């Protein structure tokens, strides 16, 4: 398996077509097809299903795509590291963030990065905290902001800021506060799927209090949850930053919880075994400054 074969495979997968991938790569289509066939032969797997509209990935192809993207990212990092000036950030860095933090921080981060690292390139990825640690371990991301990350030997974790969890309700329909967990059980909730950090924190706190939460709707998108709450379909227990990222905060009301333990911790997480570069250090410093800046309540 060669790097060229991996790159050719990824281009075909991303474009869904051998002809389009050949144009992007600047190679003849028969040569591209031969390289992909050689890769399939070596792996003893069929990577693509051919159809009249192009190609689509098999299950084996989807697994190889994730590995291949991580491999090419690591190769690019190695090249950047070897060619970098001693203290000048160069190359590409991938930063991953939860949806709310991505909405709040992407613009100021890019503005600060452009001024601080003019010879480098920044990629921002968005996902739930459970996915972000997987991306760090697999090499798809270099830095991540993660809520309450699980301690792993492969990761270095730096707590940056605590964030209160609050109850978000339709404007005019908020319960009187501070709200106890027993009182929360009377309200229909719109929550992310099980395992997502805000839901886990609320369910853990409710279990300690002997309370069963009433989850009417499960939605894996924070903006969609806020839209449903604003439309009167329920209430949501989320970090208070979620309201700051919402385009129509006047449509929501906030109720604090009486239990001060209902909070999350936002952490900066990096791979423990990956060598720190000037670009990594500079980007981490920019993120820490942005996260630690006071935010209006």
TrEMBL record:
GO terms for cellular component: cytosol. Pfam families: HTH_1, LysR_substrate. InterPro entries: HTH-type_LysR_regulators, LysR_HTH_N, LysR_subst-bd, WH-like_DNA-bd_sf, WH_DNA-bd_sf. One of its GO terms (molecular function) is DNA-binding transcription factor activity. Residues 1-58 form the HTH lysR-type domain. Gene3D superfamilies: 3.40.190.290, Winged helix-like DNA-binding domain superfamily/Winged helix DNA-binding domain. Transmembrane segments: none annotated. Keywords: DNA-binding, Transcription, Transcription regulation. PROSITE patterns: HTH_LYSR. Belongs to the LysR transcriptional regulatory family. This is LysR family nitrogen assimilation transcriptional regulator. It comes from Roseateles saccharophilus (Pseudomonas saccharophila).
